Amino acid sequence: MGIVQLPSLDKRILTWDNEKLIPRNCPVCKRKGHPMFVRPDGLCVKLCNQCDTFFVSPSPTNTQLSKFYSGYEKHHRNAKQVNGAQLRKMYLKTNPYSDYRYQVFTSLMAMQGKRVLDIGFGRGFFLYFLKQLGAQVTGIELDDYTIQYAHEDLEIENIIKTDLLKIDVREKFDVILCMDLIEHILEPFQYLNKTKMLLNPGGIIAIFTPNASFALQESAPILFRVDLEHMQYFSNTTCNYLAKKLGLDIVHLENVGYPSLVNLTEDQSVKGKLKKVIKGFPGFEDTYRFWKKHFSQDFSRTGHYHLFCVFKKR
Ligand SMILES: [Zn+2]
């Protein structure tokens, strides 16, 4: 199979400074990998045949990525802004067990008195609700606005503006959450190794990330055509490789998410609506929101767009 040029799906096409791109081996196991696809933003996606990770190479540098994220809220997040007070109001009406990830965490561990670290906590959902179960929660974030509302409106005391790699390894946690995180960073192995160092024995690390396990079943995988700031895509094999390399046990591994767009667009009853949504909204996240609104909660678990893996330290 030759290298497949992927057509764009999303209006939000990123442009990278091609001269500043850097060659990159597999960010999980350092193998070279084979070029498979060219994304709509021109970046090549390679497949590592040792750990089954798909990764962008050559990739933008950390400087280029930081520049992109500094304007993220303004230029790329098309979701409606919710302020801290609105978020708090929303959470007061939310049953956290409606989130299957919350169900999994709380079934794996009694949270009372446990130390939880959420890296890049976004809207603070897990910090807010795990705190209610008696966990001692800490969040790290780089976004000032997010930090402010977590403090003021969600009343999370321990919020630190820092990078995970800068945290003192003498700090120990029982639960570390990396939700929608690992796909954004250039050195995911280094990150996960650091989370392991910060974990107490018996503690868990959860990752939630786009799932490349089924990418080769599609001729033009949706996964590589949206959210073009993603630098790698893990598969089930990646998780097994990581567990082995880091000496962790996998206690939960699930392919999860809304049904694939390919199947949905073939369903005539939703085709029109979906087309309209894709045309009307630049972001894929909005398409999710559409699904969420129009289908039941359980539906969110029947697809395989995401990979949800929980590792446990021995
Ligand atoms: Zn690899």
Describe the protein's architecture and organization:
By secondary structure, the protein is of the alpha/beta class. The chain has one domain: 3-Layer(aba) Sandwich (Rossmann fold). 32% of the residues lie in helices and 21% in strands. It is built from 11 helices and 12 strands. It has helices spanning 62-70, 72-75, 84-92, 100-108, 125-132, 144-152, 188-197, 236-246, 261-266, 268-280, 284-294, and strands at 4-5, 34-38, 44-47, 54-56, 115-119, 136-141, 158-161, 173-179, 199-210, 232-233, 248-256, 306-313. The strands form 2 sheets. The chain has a 7-stranded mixed β-sheet, sandwiched between helices. A 5-stranded mixed β-sheet has the order 1-2-3-4-10, with no helix packed on it. The relative contact order is 0.15. Zinc ion is lined by residues 26, 28-29, 31, 48, 50-51, 53.
Give a quick rundown of the structure.
The chain has eleven helices and twelve strands. By secondary structure, it is of the alpha/beta class.
Looking at this protein, list some descriptive labels:
five-stranded mixed sheet, binds zinc ion, seven-stranded mixed sheet, 314 residues, Rossmann fold, alpha/beta
